[in-house]
Amino acid sequence: KEHIEEVEKFKAESKEAIESFRIKYLGKKGILNDFFAEFKNVPVELKKEFGQTINKLKEAATEKVTSLKEELESKVEEKGIYGDLTRPGEIIELGARHPISIVKNQIIDIFSRIGFNVSEGPEIEDDWHNFTALNLPEYHPARDMQDTFFIQTDPDVLLRTHTSSVQVRYMEENKPPIRTISPGRVYRNEAISARSHCFFHQVEGLYIDKDVSFADLKQTLQYFTTEMFGKSKIRLRPSYFPFTEPSAEVDVYWGLNNEIDYRITKGTGWLEIMGCGMVDPNVLENCGIDSKEYSGFAFGMGIDRIALLLYQIPDIRMLSENDIRFLEQFKSTL
Ligand code: PHE
């Protein structure tokens, strides 16, 4: 009976105090269990009263615990959640897009406006898609230009050196007309410096249809550079790629007559930004496209280079160092 009184008077404000009260009365080794164990030793004539009393105690203790918990919870709600409305909010840190992604998205946007879709493929490639289908058979000297990383010793497992491999895959799976750009990371075994890295990013484009001409290629590139850099002059220089014939290198004029003035180039002049050409008929045939019926053009550019120019970044390695002080600076850019 004394215990019942004590239980009824008990007050607690914390979770811990309520819990130790519960253990004291209702726990395995608690007071109630002791009384229940004692029950068999109680003389028969007192059993009834004893039993009723400990049942009351049990009820009182259980009720107390429940009501204390409810009380506590309602206080937490008042204080914690709706309490101090003048407390400052928590600051949410927003991230920034990486400059490579910003430029990549811009390029995708520009080409998607003239009907190009986006295609992607694996970074680990086989010989066929990176070389042979692109008119670079085994022992072709131009393979050396590519500084390929091979995986282990298997010559058929390599890191793609360009995303032209994605174009091969796309032609194998789709019929013309084809208008696709292939952005992605590529790898070349080159000495790492401020100007070049052993991996970088490309966007390559492919257009295949009936009667596609070199004029279409040039006009498409002029459209691209104008959208990308503002009003700009371009020039095509004859060049060589095994997968295009004829091939050309594209230069953009950086300078006085141009609306853009990128100080990074140290003055004015022509700057090479991509390679291009008419897809070699052999490549079309390798990919199951009839070269008598269809023709097309292809081009490829480095995203990293363009990002360095646009944002005047002095060292290509900054793009892969993950230095937060560098990355934070792109917060205001989409
Ligand atoms: N694949 C070439 C490279 O990696 C670029 C290119 C693509 C050139 C398409 C011509 C046509 O350098």
TrEMBL record:
The keyword Ligase applies. SUPFAM superfamilies: Class II aaRS and biotin synthetases, tRNA-binding arm. It catalyses: tRNA(Phe) + L-phenylalanine + ATP = L-phenylalanyl-tRNA(Phe) + AMP + diphosphate + H(+). It is found in: Cytoplasm. Binds 2 magnesium ions per tetramer. Its cofactor is Mg(2+). Residues 103-320 form the Aminoacyl-transfer RNA synthetases class-II family profile domain. Mg(2+) binds at E245. Belongs to the class-II aminoacyl-tRNA synthetase family. Phe-tRNA synthetase alpha subunit type 1 subfamily. This is Phenylalanine--tRNA ligase alpha subunit. It comes from Abyssalbus ytuae.
